[in-house]
Specification:
The protein has 180 residues and is of the alpha/beta class. It is 38% helix and 18% strand. The chain has a single domain, classed as Aminopeptidase. The structure holds zinc ion (ZN). Zinc ion binds next to loops. This is N-acetylmuramoyl-L-alanine amidase.
Length: 180
């Protein structure tokens, strides 16, 4: 296996809560924990992993990483809206390459299947509420999953029941798209 790099980050550090969800759950705690589960699996698969530090801003992380065309860059987040919106979506760059599109679709379809929640599909950053994303300016197969809605109790219950499977699945898909 060639030594390409999986960039697997949480996107929110300890002082950046991100979205607040049911029962006061904070997006940063969820993404840090999920990132660590994914990375443990990637390491088992023999991958070299780069991640953000829990004290580092997203800007600091993006400023120090330099993925190549052969690497993968995945940063799962949680969506939030009105407490009722449900489902998974995966964001890609407006000018995403074919590997990014294929990886995003595979992740989105798999997350919806594993959790049994609506598949909202792959969206470009312009189609999303987030607008332009710094992560999307990086080379490689790049996507930003919004795993489910952190403010929807049934979405989070589905996430809690399945997070180990979701982490293993994420690592397997990243391993597949990391060119070797
Ligand atoms: Zn987020």
């Amino acid at each position: 296996m060639a030594n390409y790099i999986s960039y697997s980050s949480a996107g929110h550090h300890l002082k950046d809560s991100g979205a607040i969800g049911v029962n006061g759950r904070q997006e940063n705690h969820e993404t840090i924990s999920f990132r660590d589960m994914v990375n443990a699996e990637l390491i088992k698969l023999g991958r070299t992993v780069v991640r953000d530090k829990d004290t580092e801003t997203l800007g600091q992380y993006l400023g120090r990483i330099n993925p190549t065309d052969k690497d993968v860059v995945v940063e799962p987040h949680f969506n939030a809206f009105n407490g009722k919106a449900s489902g998974v979506e995966v964001l890609i760059a407006d000018n995403a390459n074919e590997r990014s599109k294929a990886m995003a679709k595979e992740l989105c379809d798999g997350y919806a299947r594993i959790m049994g929640i609506p598949n909202r599909g792959v969206k470009t950053e312009s189609q999303s509420a987030r607008g332009k994303l710094g992560l999307m300016r990086k080379k490689g197969a790049v996507c930003l999953p919004e795993l489910c809605f952190i403010d929807n109790p049934s979405d989070m219950a589905a996430y809690d029941r399945n997070k180990v499977n979701l982490a293993c699945f994420t690592a397997q898909v990243m391993n597949k798209y990391d060119l070797n």
